[in-house]
Design a protein that fits this description.
single chain; 234 residues; mainly alpha; Serine Threonine Protein Phosphatase 5, Tetratricopeptide repeat; 10 helices
Length: 234
């Protein structure tokens, strides 16, 4: 008897499970009937979104990036041999950084062209243009980021916009706190502060430079400047 009771219990459980499953499907069917237009719309939007993303990356972005990579080659070659005018404007046959940055905006090559155009403009004495192009450039690389801000500092300093110059020099130091770039930009920040007439803050920055990077050329130069400023303060 106990066996029959156990069998009946299992049967009841299975029947209840079947009823629950049927109810789930019934509820799902009701839900779909009620909201089928919305569901179909969402599914269609997802499919269109995926299709659009695929089409953009393979039919638009990919070919554009490839063309941009080809276009920047000659500008980069001129930049490497320090022919800044040709790097910036092109040689009449091949376009320069300026045109690449504009024509291929949104590509990695176009982004690099903005940086090249900024540096070339800075070296050619076109400081406002340098600021414009460098501000358009973005990177996650700490060394390139430091150079971007350092060049911006130089461009602002050449325009006698010392507050902007100091701000960007400090950003350059923060972007890559290393022995290669940081001493240079820390020294330039201190010089800019000193040129503004704020010798006290300049002295503090020279001391920081000398303490953190004593073996760098800028650190040794800072040591001499520190002695001079402290003597003037007596």
């Amino acid at each position: 008897m106990a066996k029959n009771k156990s069998t009946n219990t299992q049967k009841d459980i299975l029947e209840k499970s079947d009823e629950q499953i049927s109810q789930v499907f019934s509820d799902a069917e009701y839900f779909f009937d009620q909201y089928k237009n919305i569901i179909i719309g969402v599914i269609a939007a997802v499919i269109l979104g995926i299709g659009g993303w695929w089409a953009y990356n393979n039919l638009v972005k990919g070919p554009k990036e490839s063309k941009a990579q080809d276009a920047i080659i000659y500008a980069q070659r001129y930049f490497d041999i320090d022919s800044m005018q040709l790097a910036l404007k092109g040689d009449g046959k091949n376009i320069g950084f300026e045109a690449v940055a504009k024509k291929y905006s949104g590509t990695s090559a176009g982004n690099r062209a903005a940086f090249g155009a900024g540096v070339a403009s800075l070296k050619l004495g076109k400081y406002a243009d340098a600021v414009k192009y460098l501000e358009d450039f973005s990177t996650d690389d700490p060394i390139l980021s430091a150079r971007k801000y350092g060049c911006l500092g130089d461009a602002y300093a050449e325009q006698n916009k010392m507050d902007n110059a100091i701000e960007n020099y400090k950003k350059a130091v923060a972007a890559a706190d290393n022995e290669t770039t940081a001493p240079t930009y820390l020294y330039r920040a201190a010089l800019a502060i000193e040129q503004k007439g704020n010798k006290k803050d300049a002295l503090e920055l020279y001391k920081e430079l000398n303490t953190k990077y004593p073996n760098s050329q800028e650190g040794m130069a800072a040591e001499i400047t520190i002695a001079k400023l402290e003597a003037q303060a007596l």
